[in-house]
Amino acid sequence: MKPSISLIGAGAAGSALLIALMRKGYPVAAISSRTLESARKCAQLVGATNASTDNASACAAGVIVVIATPDGMIQPVCDKIAAGGGFHPGQLVLHLSGACGSGALAAAAGQGADTCAMHPIQTLAAPLEGARLLETAWYCLEGEDRGVARARRLAERLSGRALTIDKSDKALYHAALCVASNYLVVLEKMAVEMLAQAGIDRRDALPALLPLIRGAADNLAACGLPDALTGPISRGDAATVTQHLHAMNDSCSDYVPVYRSLGRLALMLAEEKGKMEPGSAARLRDMLKTRD
Ligand SMILES: NC(=O)c1ccc[n+]([C@@H]2O[C@H](COP(=O)([O-])OP(=O)(O)OC[C@H]3O[C@@H](n4cnc5c(N)ncnc54)[C@H](OP(=O)(O)O)[C@@H]3O)[C@@H](O)[C@H]2O)c1
After folding, report:
1. pLDDT tens string 94-108
2. Structural domain for 191, as ranges
């Protein structure tokens, strides 16, 4: 029999993880959230009946407790449960934040529970779609040895993919994920605006980009870095990059510094591929320099 799960904070990430765990055979002990509405909505998705706003009772009911509140609420929620003597030895208490350390669960550890920060490396916007994405997600674990070992077993059952990280490296780790995911979204917003400036109907812009974005992700999966890089910089095509910069200076000059910065990183990647002629690299480097 697998250990039962209590969820505290029935939002996007917590609900997705609970569904994923339920599908792997973990029984749901209890769900609590700030509002009864969220707890009930999540309970309906996993076929559970024990939904409430009583964090302490929900916590007491489960062997594995997942605190999936917003980052700033993890420690206060954990402290409040502990103040009522809500944790006990044998429990595994997890939170899902990538930025916050496992120290936010110190009050649970103080009552003998094993603790670990178990961050799903995935973007989770809705429970069911999130649960599907979690089938292939990696998890990054940080905490004390027993908590990490137990969380690793859980991650292995979910997707078989776990990393561990030192507390001191978490900020850089989280910044990297922000670049990989959030800034990708920002770049697509930039591309949509540029397409609109180029006369493409705004409604068509993002749909037209999506297959391209998926193609780039597929190339990354198939070829890795640096070989997945394509495009004019990868080909050493300085004439095309000059045209880009002229067009952007005319229509969307605010984006030029971003284009130049990313272009310089693209040039480094292109040089790593090893097919760039030295003359082309020098011309590109010059035109991609920061301008005042
Ligand atoms: N979403 C992602 O892509 C993602 C990915 C990886 C990790 N995470 C991590 O997962 C955690 C949750 O993020 P999220 O995106 O799921 O946020 P979210 O959708 O805003 O959900 C947070 C939930 O916490 C509940 N909550 C707030 N205060 C509470 C309290 N005092 N007691 C009980 N429940 C409380 C809220 O309840 P109500 O709905 O009832 O107001 C809400 O359902 C964060 O640590 C985040 O860093 C998120």
Report:
1. 999 999 999 999 999
2. 172-287
